[in-house]
Design brief:
This protein has 181 residues and is an alpha/beta fold. It is 47% helix and 20% strand. It has one domain: Nucleotidyltransferase, domain 5, CATH 3.30.420.10. The radius of gyration is 16 Å and the shape is globular. The two termini are 26 Å apart.
Length: 181
């Protein structure tokens, strides 16, 4: 497998998280992660900003693939609708730049990163900090959620997760001590 860049997105209408990783064979490294605050009051203008920010990330980093977190089913239908629109705009931006998009459920992402589909944002961030060896935790955990989406996509496409060629996370760690601090 040749090298590739994966853009992971945690869509949001107020804060949108993203992470970019560079993949070489089964190894990966973080290129960038962050959270973009959407300050517009009008919902349509928020969607326009989301679209332009995704296009800007794509033009800057030239990802080969995009992974996006799917909206989770909550109690507030209005929030779901807004989040679904944000996700759709992110997908449309990537597709318009001929970048394939894969969608993952929040549970699948958490399972892939921590081994627990019900892990908290903090647990996901802590595991990523250990795997990716970054020193400072970002201000917004939306950034690590975006990174988690990219890493999940990498794990799913290379069968590096316990669901793939490893029996468990313990097995993965024992065979990859260089990836753990």
């Amino acid at each position: 497998m040749s090298s590739k860049i994966i853009l992971g997105i945690d869509p949001g209408t107020i804060i949108m998280g993203y992470g970019l990783i560079s993949v070489q064979k089964s190894d990966f490294k973080v290129i960038s992660l962050g959270a973009i605050q959407i300050k517009e009051k009008d919902q349509v203008l928020r969607l326009k900003t989301i679209h332009s920010k995704i296009i800007q990330l794509i033009k800057t980093h030239l990802p080969d693939e995009c992974a996006i977190e799917a909206p989770f089913f909550g109690k507030n239908a209005q929030s779901m609708l807004k989040l679904g629109r944000a996700q759709g705009v992110c997908m449309a931006a990537a597709i318009s730049m001929d970048i394939p998009v894969t969608e993952y459920s929040p549970k699948k992402i958490k399972q892939s990163i921590t081994g627990n589909g019900n892990a908290s944002k903090e647990q996901v961030a802590a595991m990523l900090q250990s795997l990716c060896k970054f020193n400072r935790m970002p201000k917004h955990l939306d950034a690590t959620d975006g990174l988690a989406t990219a890493v999940c996509h990498h794990f799913q496409s290379t069968s590096i997760s316990p669901a793939g060629k490893f029996k468990s996370w313990k097995d993965f760690i024992s065979k990859n001590p260089h990836r753990i601090q």
